[in-house]
Structure formats: C-alpha cells, structure tokens
Amino acid sequence: MNAPPSPSHLSSGQAARPPRPGPVRDVVAVVLVAVPLGLALLGPLVAGAAPERTQPFLPDAGWLGSDFVGRDVWRQVLLGGWSIIATALCATVLAYLVGAPIGLAAAMTRRRWVDEALLRPLDILLALPSLLLMLLLASIAPPTAWTVVGIVALINLPDVARIVRAGALEVARRTSVEAMWLQGESRVAIAVVFIGRAVLRTLAADAGVRVVGAFYLVAAASFLGVGTGPDTSDWAVMVDVNRDGIFLTPWGVLVPAMLLVALSMGLNLLFDRLLSRRRHEEHTL
Amino acid sequence: MWRYAARRVGFGGIQILAVALLAFALVEALPGDAAVALAADDPDPRTIARIRERMGLDQPVTVRFWEWLTGLFRADLGTSLVSGRPVTDILAAALAPTLTLAAIALALLLPLAVGLGVLAALREGGAVDRAITSASVSLYSVPEFALAIVLVAVFALQLGWLPPTAVGVSSLLAQPAVLVLPLVVLLARPICSISRLVRAGMIEALGSDYVEHAHRLGLSGRRVRYAHALPNALAPAAAQISRTTDWLLGGVVVEAVFVIPGLGTELVNAVAARDIPVIQGLALLFAMTTVAVNLAADLVAFRLAPRTEVVA
Amino acid sequence: MPPTPRPVGLSRRGFLGATAVTLAATACAPSTGGGSAPSTGGRLRAAFAGGGAQEVLDPHQVSLFVDAARAKALYDKLADQGSDMAVVPRLAESWEPGPDLTTWRVRLREATFHDGSPVRAADVLYSYARILDPEQGHRAKSDLAPIDIEASHAVDERTIEFVLHHPFAEFSNILAAFGAYIVPEGATQFDTPVGSGPFSFVSFEPGRNFVVRRFDDYWEGAPRLDELEIVVSNEESARINALLGGQVDYAHDISATTARAQQGEDSVNLVSSPNSNMMGFAMKLDRPPFDDLRVRQAMFALCDRRELVDTVLSGEGSVGNDLFGKGFKYYAADIAQRERDLDTARRLLREAGAENLPVTLETADVAAGFPEAASVFADQMRAAGIDATVNQRNPDTYWADTLDGGHLSVNRSGAMPIGSHISQRLLSDSPTNVTKWQREEFDALYTKLQSTADETERAGYYERMQRQLHEEGGYLIWGFANWIVATGAQVRGVEQAPANTLDWARFDKVWLE
C-alpha cells in the first residue's frame, strides 16, 4: 500500500469558506465525532474480560460475530479505538512540532540560503516514494506503535513545513509586519505573536484532514505489517486483518471502518465550522 | 521563467541522486539480504554463504554502491540479484501497465475534479455544493480495498458487467474493460481531494479584489469565472498533483486486487527479495517521475498565476 | 525441502481463518467426473501466487509453489512422492542397491526430451552434478548430498550406477527430492527450456504468465489439455475472484475462509487435501528455559491443540501429536494422542521452578496462520501461568532469524518423507536444526536405519526415534493443515494431494468438460 495522497489536497491551507453552517450540521458533526470518540475512550473501561475464543468469522458469536482469530468483534471494537486515535494524533502533533518551526523559520529568514538549507532536505524526502519509504522503514524499525508514529510523522513532515512556510510567507510580506521589522521588534516576537497566530488558521484547516490521513497511513502500515502484533486491537488494523472474512461476517471490517469514516467526517465538519467562525469574526472586526 | 526552470532541473538532478543514495542506505540497513531472502525456510548458513558469494554480496558496501553509480552514467542499472535479468528490462515490463493506468487516470482526474470543484464553488452553500462536499469527505475516508471489494462483488461477480481482475491480460489497452474498476478505485480519493482544493481556490478567487475589479470593468460573469478566477484556482491544485502522481504510480492495493503486474507490485516483491539493483532502479524511476511532475506542475502554476508564491 | 510460499506480495494471512464447517462433501468430489469419459483439448488457466520479476525457469532453482508447478509441467524427476510420501517411479524404471547400500543401480525408462533426443544416463549425471555444484545454492543440494557424483557413472545409455558417501537405504527419497529435475546434458540457460515433462515450452513472462503446450511423445501418454497457462496473482481474493469471473479455471492455495464462503456454489469445486502442512512451535533445547525437560513437557501439556486447529486452521485440518508426518509412511500412529492437561502443566512448571516464566514467542506474517497461531498459543500459555509475549518479526528474514535466535518460534513444514525431516532438522549436523536437538544416540540410530536394507527393521528404528522425539523433543506439533485448491465446474481430474507431491498441480491428468 501507498501513502494516501497528501491530506493537504483536502484543504489547501488557504481556507475556503465552507458551506454556511447550520444547527443541523453542527449536531451531525458533534454526533459523528462523539460516537467514535466516546467508544474509544470508554470502551476499554467497559470491555470486560475476554470471552472464550470461537471459530473465526463466525456470525453468531457475540452480536457482531468473531474476528480472524475467533475473538469477539464487539470487544475488539471497544478496545481498538484508543490506540488508533492516539497514534494518529501523536503522529500529527509530532509532524507539526517539527515541521511548523522549520516552515516558520524558512518564511521568516531574509537569507535565501537558510530558506534553501531548511527546505531542500525535505524536498528530497518528498521525492522518495512514500511507498518505498514506508516499506523500508517498516522493515528496519522495530514493529511498535512508536515506529508507526514516527513513519507517519515523517511522511507528513515535508507537507507541513511547506504549508506553514507558504502561510507564513503571505503574512510576513504584509506591510504591517514590514513595519514591525522596521520598528526593531525582535524576530521571535514577530514569529510567535504575530505570524504564528495568523498561521494558526492555516493549521486548523489542515489539521482535520491530516489526522484523517494519519488514520489511513496507520492502516497502510498495518497492511505492510508494521506496528501490528497479532494481539493488537486497533480499528485500522481490524479493517485490514478481517477483510478475508468479509463475505462470512462483515462486521469486523464494517464497524471499525464506519467508526473511522464517521470520525473523519465529523472532524472535518468541526474544523470547517471552527474556521468559518474565525473568518466571520475577522470580517466583523 | 527559463532561469527558474533551469535551476529547478539542476536541483532535480541532485534530488534524484540523493534519493538513490538514501534508498541504497535504507536497503543496506534492512535486516537480512537477498541471500537470506532467497534461502527462505531453508536457511542453511552454508547455502546462504554460497548464494551471497554468487550474488557478489560479499563485496564491501562502498564497492557495490560505486559500481552501481558508475554503471548509472553508462545507462546501466545492473542486473537483478535473484533472476540475473537486466534491471532496465524489469522496469520496462512493470512500467507499461502502471503507466497506462496512471495516464488514463490523470487524463480523467483533471476534468472530473476541476468540474466538480467549480460546480461546488459556483453553488457555494447550496444543495449541490453540500452533496459534493459531503460525498467527497466520506468517500475520501473509505479504505480503497473496501471500495474495491464492493465494486468487484457488485459489478463483476453479481452483475457480470466487467471482468473482476486483469489476470493473464498481456496488454491492458487490448482489453479496456479490465481497466474500468481499477480506474474507479484509483481515482476515488484524488478526485475528492483535488475537487475540494479547486472549490476552495475558486471561492477564494471569486471573492478576491482582482475578480471584483474585473466585474467592475464590465466583463461578463462567464468570462470572469473561467478566464480569470479559474486559472487562479487551478494553481494550487496543479502544485499538489505531484503527490497524486506518487499515489498513482505506487498503487499496490489496486495492483494486487486487480492483478496488474506494475511498479508497486514489483517494488513489494523486490523489497521482500532484498533485490537491491531492482529496488534502486525503481527508486530512481519514482524519483525521476516525481521530480518531473513536480517541475511541470510548478511551471504550470507559475504560468497560471505568477503572483502565487511557488516554493522554488 | 519443500518450499514455503516466500512472502510475496501482500497479506499472506489468507489461508487459515474460518469456521470448521466441513468441506468433506465438496472436497472429495471432483477427481472423476461422474464416470463420463475424459475429453481432450482446450486450454486450462491456473492462478498461483508468484514472485514477480525475480521468478526464473531454472528447475534447479525452484523456490515458490508456482516455480514447482512450472518445473513439473516441463520436467521430470527420476521418482516422485505419492500422497503418503511413498516413492513412485518416474523417469527411473527401477533402482537396485548393491550389497552394502553404498551403490545403487538406476535403470531409466524410455523417454524423450521435447527436442526429440532421448533421456540418457549422461543427462541424469549432468543434472545431479549441476545441483551438487558447490558454487551454486541449488535447492536439492542437501538432499543429494549422500551422492558421490565424481564416482557415479553411466553403465550404459540407460543405466546409472550411483556411488554414495555412506550407506543410504532410502535412496529413492533422493531421486524424488524437491527440485531434483532432469535437464538435458549441457543445459545452462533456461529462457527456452527443454525438458522431458508432459508439456513443452511456449512462452514465459516472469511474474505474469507462462504458457506450455501438450507434448505428444510424453512417456506416460500425452496430456489431455492442448495448452496450459499459469498466471500469477499474489492476492488470494484476486485468485478466487478470477475463478468466479471465469478468467481462470484453477486457483491454487485457497483460504479456509474463502472455501467456506464459496461452499455450495455450483460454479466452484473445492479440493481439500489433508495432512499437507505441519503446524507447530519450535522450542530450542540448548538454552533456557527449554533446556529443562519439565518445561518442555509442561508446554506439551498446556497446549490445546483442538482450539488451535479450530481457530487458526478454521477446522480445516487435524490435531497433531508432536510428531512430523501424520498419515505418512513410518509415522508412529500408535503413540497415544496428547491431550490438554493444565494441572500437569502447572505442576511441571512448579517443579522446574518456572512459575510466571517469561517466554517470548517469535512469529511473522510469513505463512498462513502464523500470527494467528502465536496469538492463540500465547493465551494458552498465559492460562497456565506463563508470562507470554509475542514478538512479531520481519517476514523476509524470519527463517534465518529464528534458526538461531529466540527460544520459541512458530514453525511449519510442507510435506516430505519422515526420513528427510529427520536428516534436515534433527541430526547434530543438520543444516536447519531449529530445535537444537543434538543427540549422539539419536544420530547413531539414524545412521543404523539408513544402513539397514530390511524395511520392517527400519520401521522399528523409526518407531524408536519418534518415541524419543515425542517424549523429549523440541517440536510441539499441534496440527496438520489441509491444502485447498479451487477449480471451475468444468475442470476434472484434480486429485487430492499434499503440496509438492506427485499429484499436486499435476495438469497432465486434468481435462476440461
């Protein structure tokens, strides 16, 4: 499997006006996020002890049937949300923590060589096929959750840096910032207080889809056999390991897939909503 | 523009070499080598040592990389460690089906994604926009193999309209029916993402001072939309298409599900076999394509909207 | 050694994973088509998993199932294994030992290569010398090791006298060894291969397809098919889809899950062959904790074989008794079947001072059922108070890694004679002795066995060796998986046979209706 096309496709960072928000839409968005999130957070608390294993892909076992090693699908659903959400969030945060300062620094500098020195290595990463990167890293690194976090963050890094740089550059060229320069404001102050704040909007637009992208990168990693002990409970992994039995009992694939789709859609709607409110505020100010 | 292009080409060359070096280093760092992989469940150390010698893997890393690099300048990519066939032949064979699929996908992707994006943008907030936006977000979130399973089950096995796989088909173009389902699966996500991007860019452009100015000048709405706003909206889309190309070239899942012996399949096989010359050749090919498409996309973006800041 | 499908392509979990609805009804049906006379003609398309551009046609380098299927269509061995591992003559008409079992005289039948030249003693000697070439790592090399190829010679055009380094009573196993194909004298390139097999070469695209046509002068009678095409599809789901869509007539290596989903479909016949694949765990005897016999016996006792067969194999298999080769010649079927006994297991662990013993179980997604077996067995160990951890390894190097690394690993083996299993894995100097079972008296028994011409006496030795292994060995063999292939309804003559035996992937006896 391949890394999905960069999530930045979904939102360019130049936040567009989303469709006008309405109360129904808000409720839908909240429900879409709350159900999977609630299951993920509370699931492990209520999952209880493992019932006896049954035969694999048995539709009558439990109320969602059994999975590829005869475990109860419902229990796996309860247990499997936490790790995928944590992994995807960690990876996204890590990509921002490393990528945003690089992008900011590149945008702020007045020296061309610094800009180049910061971005060129990332461009090389961009030219290395993500499939190859994933295959190789997956084989080298120990198969743990942190490896997955690292790989997903690394694949996202060049995109994040570029988006932040592009967003910051636009702001940095504004006359107000030029004026601050001339007034002798410190570079850090400008970066953090002014540009950083302006770039936040770009990041908010980007974050929703990037988390979604991360879900599927984790699933892709599972497909390539990294980060997935056979004992792992994880929605993205479930989608992959249970697909052989989809014609016998579909729930082992459908339920975790639908939870991920719901979470993805909900997150996107919420971020859109957030964005339009900010935009609205800006316009009225 | 030409100076810009020349600089980009120069950097592209460095990028490609760096990728080759990086790929070599990563493969070297992999546990086991081609000899171990070939011995499989018969890992007799003596056999492995013999295979290793036959493959020339007992040579130092530096010597092997130098040989590969100098071969590169003679347009010689070496031979497969496992089968002994020239890497160029292997690449050519795997390239044909992937290229066919990717080219058709790209040709369909642009009009479809742009059309949907523009349509949504012009009906911003309306029912059409909402339908397109929600459909694209949800379709984007569906795992591609799930989409493939459903499509094959319905259109190939139940209805019997289309062949379920391309197994044994020597040329994809000779039997275009086998291309339909792979194309749909391959296109699903890029269409969603790029149409959203076009929509965003279009809305932004339509609201800009520049377009308002054009309106004030008395240009027709149509003309403003397609001659002025659209090019600006396309620029970011064009700049992002390179990532899509990467996606189209390495469609392992689509290739596996529909039995298309292309580049992605070959890469997975080559990594499993630790066949370094083949992996290197593939990395080079991927890098060259990515760099070329990136360059083309940036140049297009540069032409479409010179004011856009292009990360050079 | 019969090959594992090397980890090619994507998910290899396919094979084992559904419930135990029995397939017996469909399984046995298709060998003869309701008494109707076999028809001739047509092209059969068979789908196998493959290895991409790395595939070669050199029959001495076979490694994947698809390699073996192709080699089998083009080439012949001197002998081959039947479904119970008894040796069946092929190109060799007969083999007679000298008095001390160190020389064997092999008589060839009349057969011709595809180019019309006869199969001669010189071709056999050339082929065996090529396999034994120390410069190459050919697959059958370790099987052929007893042969002193320098001293072996042709007696006449169709008679060879093989000289061995030491007495070897089961010489015929060598003739039937995996990959010991006969090529014409002097053959070095295999782009347009010439063999003596039932089909002659037409075309080959590595990783894609392979076409052969009927060889009318085949010594056993020409095949019924006009043409055979072998296509490559790594995904099991794609193979079955291609079969359902009528794109292929034969799909090799079908998972129990798929088999169950396709049950009752008129358009598909399932052929399920028992005792094909040994499934087990290998404990290393030369290091803690399994250097302690009590710990090994505790492991034997805590294992719930039925649960493993039901979950990992989806019931498509049978329980094992910690011995290789169930259903094969010389298998010690008299030894009582081990049952789960948690109390005994706990007692043994207590006696060994190994309560809460930390154990790491190595596995990899290298063959069907491996991750699943590790998951299930880890739970079983935990139930007996063992602190079990599963270590998921890199599939590409798993076999080399676990030969010397770790202390407990998931293990499997394809079908082979019990003697070959012993010589390759259980002697002090065996090349792949994964359990580190190194006993001088056991080695001596094997040497004695191979110097004994009398078959009953040999059977006695086999029994003694297996009792030792059952009592104290390092292999915990919990089951034997069935091997499933699916064919279109129009295909007849596909026999049940463990993979890599004579009747497996044997297309010269198959016909289309």
Automatic annotation (TrEMBL), chain A:
Keywords: Cell membrane, Membrane, Transmembrane, Transmembrane helix, Transport. InterPro entries: BP-dependent_transpt_permease, MetI-like, MetI-like_sf. It comes from the Bacteria. It holds the Pfam family BPD_transp_1. The chain crosses the membrane at residues 27-50, 82-106, 144-164, 207-226, 246-271. PROSITE patterns: ABC_TM1. Its main location: membrane. It is a multi-pass membrane protein. Residues 1-21 are annotated as: Disordered. It is found in: Cell membrane. Residues 81-271 form the ABC transmembrane type-1 domain. Belongs to the binding-protein-dependent transport system permease family. This is ABC transporter permease.
TrEMBL record, chain B:
Keywords: Cell membrane, Membrane, Transmembrane, Transmembrane helix, Transport. It is found in: Cell membrane. Gene3D superfamilies: MetI-like. CDD domains: TM_PBP2 (cd06261). It is a multi-pass membrane protein. Residues 95-297 form the ABC transmembrane type-1 domain. InterPro entries: BPD_transp_1_N, MetI-like, MetI-like_sf. Its main location: membrane. The chain crosses the membrane at residues 90-122, 142-161, 173-192, 247-264, 276-297. Belongs to the binding-protein-dependent transport system permease family. PANTHER family: DIPEPTIDE TRANSPORT SYSTEM PERMEASE PROTEIN DPPB-RELATED, PEPTIDE ABC TRANSPORTER PERMEASE PROTEIN. This is ABC transporter permease.
UniProtKB/TrEMBL annotation, chain C:
Gene3D superfamilies: Dipeptide-binding Protein, Domain 1 (3.90.76.10), Dipeptide-binding Protein, Domain 3 (3.10.105.10), Periplasmic binding protein-like II (3.40.190.10). The keyword Transport applies. CDD domains: PBP2_NikA_DppA_OppA_like_17. Coiled coil: none annotated. Keywords: Signal, Transport. It comes from the Bacteria. The keyword Transport applies. InterPro entries: Peptide/Ni-bd (IPR030678), SBP_5 (IPR039424), SBP_5_dom (IPR000914), TAT_signal (IPR006311). Residues 87-406 form the Solute-binding protein family domain. Belongs to the bacterial solute-binding protein 5 family. This is ABC transporter substrate-binding protein.
